[in-house]
Amino acid sequence: MTDKTQVLVVGSGISGLTSAVYLAERGHAVTVVAREPAAESTSVVAAAITGGPAFADPAVLEDEWAPGDLMVRWHRAGLTELTKLADAPGSGVRLGRGRLVSSQPGTVTPEWEAGLPGYRLCVEDERAGFPLAFEVTMPVVDMRIYLDYLIGRLRAAGGSVETGELASVADAAAQSPVVVNCTGAHARTFAGDESVFAVRGQHVIVANPGIEDFLFEFSKGPRQAVIVPHADRVVLGTTADKGEWSLEPDEEQTEHILRRSAELDKRLAGAEVLGVEVGLRAGRPTVRLEAEKVGDALVVHNYGHGGVALGLSWGCAADVAALIERS
């Protein structure tokens, strides 16, 4: 490919925008097309924190999707980049202290510990009733701000974002010599990939009563405790309903999230509810990051990241660029 390749990125979530920024800042002519603005994508609903190579979402990903060398590399790239962005004005990224907890007893392996910055195993009275808990320092990302930040970087590098409907990979390939498919859960229809399944997640947003540290549960199952503060609001959750495509808030889930959150932090009892948000994570047995020819176009697929698309985004974007530039 030439240094100024025309690239069409399909999808305005975290994977699409990060891939677009990475490519545009390397000199490619990038256009992002999505059927909804970034502010309405699943990514904006994320809590969102990211950390080491073992920090995958077991409620979203298939059991056989274990962190391997590729996952470790992608996560390390994401951790490095997001840590740098904690110093960038207007990025929406900060380094936050908090606890990762699990209802499944276990031990932290050397691989986990090496990939979790500021790791400290919690003593019993710090575990909030969980058999496994440890403190870490991780990038905490306000996705409302961060997605706008990425769009700003994309435009500064000469790229653009458009709203539009593309029905399929073939439809996109007919419009550009290079296509990057970042359609998330919608890759099931867009790419005809029947291994993709939606994992519905619901969060409740409340006014912040003074919470600074996050709590994030990584237990297996359809519901996990999530308490992530962002300035004047706190994101509470979450659910992980496999195969559920509804974007309508569920009142019973809202009540459960509020009740469980208040049990874990009494300051949340009676907190003002600001909203309820629902998004669809892209579940898949493995991440799909590979290239194929569709007609005369090169199509690079980048989807199926489950609940860890933010953490994988920069590492996957680098691999997307490598596939394009060596083709």
Automatic annotation (TrEMBL):
Q: May I have one GO cellular component term?
A: cytoplasm
Native source organism of the sequence: Kibdelosporangium aridum
| Signal sequence coordinates | none
Q: Which GO terms describe its biological process?
A: D-amino acid catabolic process
This enzyme catalyses:
a D-alpha-amino acid + O2 + H2O = a 2-oxocarboxylate + H2O2 + NH4(+)
The EC number on file is 1.4.3.3
UniProt keyword annotation of Flavoprotein present: yes
What this protein needs as a cofactor is: FAD
The record's GO molecular-function terms, alphabetically, read: D-amino-acid oxidase activity; FAD binding
Q: What class of enzyme is it?
A: oxidoreductase
**Known InterPro entries for this protein?**
DAO (IPR023209), FAD-dep_OxRdtase (IPR006076)
> Mind telling me which SUPFAM superfamilies this protein's record contains?
FAD-linked reductases, C-terminal domain (SSF54373), Nucleotide-binding domain (SSF51971)
Give the Pfam families listed for this entry.
DAO (PF01266)
**Family from the record:** Belongs to the DAMOX/DASOX family.
List residues of the FAD dependent oxidoreductase domain: 7-323
**Keywords assigned by UniProt, alphabetized:** FAD, Flavoprotein, Oxidoreductase
Q: Supply the name of the protein.
A: D-amino-acid oxidase
